[in-house]
Amino acid sequence: MRRGDRFPDDQAEVVFSDIFVEQLEADLSESDRIDVLAAIIVLCEAPGGKHPLKKPLAGWNTLDVLSAQKRVIYKASVVEGTGLIEVLCLGPRRDSEVYDMATGVAATGRLSDDELTQLWDALAILDVATETIGLEGWDYRPTAAPEGLRRSAVAAGVLDDATAALLARDEVLVAMEHAWDQGQLDPALALVAALERARGSADFGEREILSARQENRCAAEMPRAGAACIRRQGHPGPHRARP
Predict the structure, then answer these.
(1) pLDDT tens digit string along 178-192?
(2) pTM of the model
């Protein structure tokens, strides 16, 4: 993509090469990792970059990070209507070292799915919270709890049908665990416990989570994940394949 080009709705699937994740983990401090990741997220809004590369790296682009001390090599494209950012490697900005590194990584052509890590998986590997890099961690609908578990919670009076249908397995279990904390059934207390679990570290009202989960899903087909985005419709930035 060229400077000034945009992704559809400023959204994209973001994937990292395994080498890039290893570089973040081994070579950078926690604060520097966060800065690099935050800079990559911004590519969803401005994917064109500043320095398109020539052969043998034609199609790849560069992103200066960490006060221009380092450079990220990435590719931005639109695949069947969905934005895609593939991050190849990170290296020093000086001389041609980062390009030599990128050429070696990309020498075999298109990276296989086995050599790529989804953004959300990388955040877990690097122990970086989504909120730390400006993403909302709560705005997806998780896989619903098994029907038997939902029915048990409803039959016990812990949750109502509509609420149970919006909660994940671990959230329903937390609700049941805390429903009798005060010695007798307290559905309100159970719901608070479940929504605290759902909220995680996000600075967001627990009850608003249920409202957000009732919104339509993005459902953009992610070309590398082979799955539909589970975040809410109109979400900012990166698509998400699974919780």
Answers:
(1) 999 999 999 999 999
(2) 0.84
